[in-house]
Automatic annotation (TrEMBL):
Its EC number is 2.7.13.3. SUPFAM superfamilies: ATPase domain of HSP90 chaperone/DNA topoisomerase II/histidine kinase (SSF55874), Homodimeric domain of signal transducing histidine kinase (SSF47384). Residues 186-238 form the HAMP domain. Keywords: Kinase, Membrane, Phosphoprotein, Transferase, Transmembrane, Transmembrane helix, Two-component regulatory system. It comes from Polaromonas vacuolata. This is histidine kinase. It is found in: Membrane. It catalyses: ATP + protein L-histidine = ADP + protein N-phospho-L-histidine.
Length: 455
């Protein structure tokens, strides 16, 4: 069987993976912000330098006096890797002095306004600034352009230093957060671990409910679901055991009788006596078959079955119609009265079993000892307030109060007539309870027995 990742590993993956992505994204964003601020620092440095250089160039008559001592030039050119390039031109673009030919600003410049732009010198990206200054007199105005350019090496170095200084604390914070996440997951998974340990320590026969009090709501829901499953299994096993016990107990006597009758028949030589023995064997076999069918119906009434909308009135009419030939043969007036249609939520199979048992009981016992009147069995379905009631009523002698108290006990029989096994009304009660209903037995008027199913 192929196993996927455990729940703990999945939680760690989905909690730590976004953290890693955010950590990397934060590092990249930090680097970009550091570059931006380093560029602002570079612009401030270029601003101070270009204004200082512009102040060193003074107009003198119709010419210019450049007071640019070698010390200042040495400072500008002291770093061979990240040296500052400068150029003075007048008019703008006509080289006067400097150490590089610096390109003009792409958008031009206004007098006294600083213009920052990017350019390249020897295929190296540079940050440049241009400042135009007016000099001369009214008759001969002149414009002087001072330009400085510096590479991005310093900016990138500052950004990398800033990111490296920030990355170490971020890494430590990430590790600390990972440890906290793992500890939190482990603590959160502890109830499931305890639940797993409880289940592993149980024997296969232990179906008692699980006890879980100190756990999150989700685990309580899981425990409730497991307990419901255990209850269903326990109920199913109980029904199976009851079925086996009942079958073993109830079939022992008829099977012993069958064996006894067949042994006697084998010892007989008279054909008439042998035939009589065979009739008894046949009757015993029929009773055993009915007992087995009733036991199976009782077991089925407690099993899980699908529920759907059922027309109870139509179902009762169909069953009464099916049993009409038997009623006619017994000279019993079997009829239906009540609503033509009445729907409910239930199992058609189980409801059919219940109605069949009620009508069979009425035909078998309710009309067996009439006092002169025509035997009748009436099936009805009608609405009583918020309940749907199915009733089967006969006009026989009925049962007294003491007998009615035992009618739902399994294997209890209120008549000595052959053919029954005392399970019919027990099955009806099981089916009624499965549908959230109840069954009652009352004395009919003026005589007889009325069995009602109320849903």
């Amino acid at each position: 069987m192929k196993h996927g990742l455990s729940l703990r590993r999945q939680l760690l993956l989905w909690l730590l993976l976004p953290q890693l992505v955010l950590w990397l994204g934060g590092g990249i964003l930090t680097y970009r912000v550091a570059l931006n601020y380093a560029e602002k620092g570079l612009d401030q440095s270029l601003t101070q330098s270009v204004r200082s250089l512009a102040r060193q160039i003074k107009p003198m008559g119709s010419g210019l006096l450049v007071d640019f001592p070698k010390a200042a030039q040495a400072i500008l050119e002291e770093d061979p890797v990240d040296r500052v390039s400068y150029m003075v031109s007048s008019p703008p673009g006509k080289f006067l002095l400097g150490n590089q030919k610096i390109a003009a600003p792409p958008s031009g410049s206004a007098l006294g306004q600083l213009v920052f732009y990017r350019m390249e010198i020897d295929a190296k990206p540079m940050r440049a600034v241009a400042l135009d200054v007016a000099y001369g007199d009214a008759d001969n105005p002149q414009i002087l352009r001072v330009q400085l350019a510096k590479s991005y090496i310093a900016r990138e170095r500052i950004a990398k230093e800033l990111v490296s200084d920030l990355f170490a604390p971020l890494l430590l914070l990430g590790l600390a957060l990972s440890v906290l996440v793992y500890a939190g997951i482990r603590r959160g998974m502890a109830p499931l671990t305890r639940l797993e340990r409880q289940l592993k320590q149980r024997s296969a026969a232990d179906l008692t409910p699980l006890e879980f009090t100190t756990a999150p709501t989700e685990v309580h829901a899981l425990v409730d679901a497991i307990n419901r499953l255990l209850a269903a299994v326990r109920r199913s096993m109980s029904q199976e055991k009851r079925f086996i016990d009942d079958a073993a107990h109830q079939l022992r006597t008829p099977l012993a009788g069958l064996i006894n009758q067949t042994e006697l028949a084998l010892d007989e030589s008279d054909a008439a006596l042998i035939k009589a023995r065979l009739h008894k064997v046949h009757a015993g076999a029929q009773r055993s078959a009915r007992l087995v069918n009733q036991l199976l119906a009782l077991a089925r009434s407690g099993s899980e079955v699908p529920m759907a909308q059922v027309d109870l009135a139509q179902l009762a009419q169909d069953i009464a119609r099916e049993l009409s030939p038997r009623a006619v043969a017994m000279k019993v007036d079997l009829g239906y009265e009540g609503q033509a249609h009445a729907t409910m939520h239930g199992s058609a199979t189980l409801l059919r079993e219940a109605v069949m048992n009620l009508i069979d009981n009425a035909l078998r016992y309710g009309v067996s000892s009439q006092a002169g009147s025509e035997p009748t069995v009436t099936v009805s379905v009608h609405q009583e307030a918020a309940h749907l009631v199915l009733a089967v009523e006969d006009n026989g002698l009925g049962l007294n109060q003491a007998q009615r108290e035992h009618v739902f006990e399994r294997f209890w029989r209120g008549s000595d007539l052959p053919g029954g096994c005392g399970l019919g009304l027990a099955i009806v009660q099981e089916i009624a309870q499965r549908h959230g209903g109840q069954v009652s037995v009352t004395q009919a008027q003026p005589q007889g027995l009325r069995v009602s199913l109320q849903f």
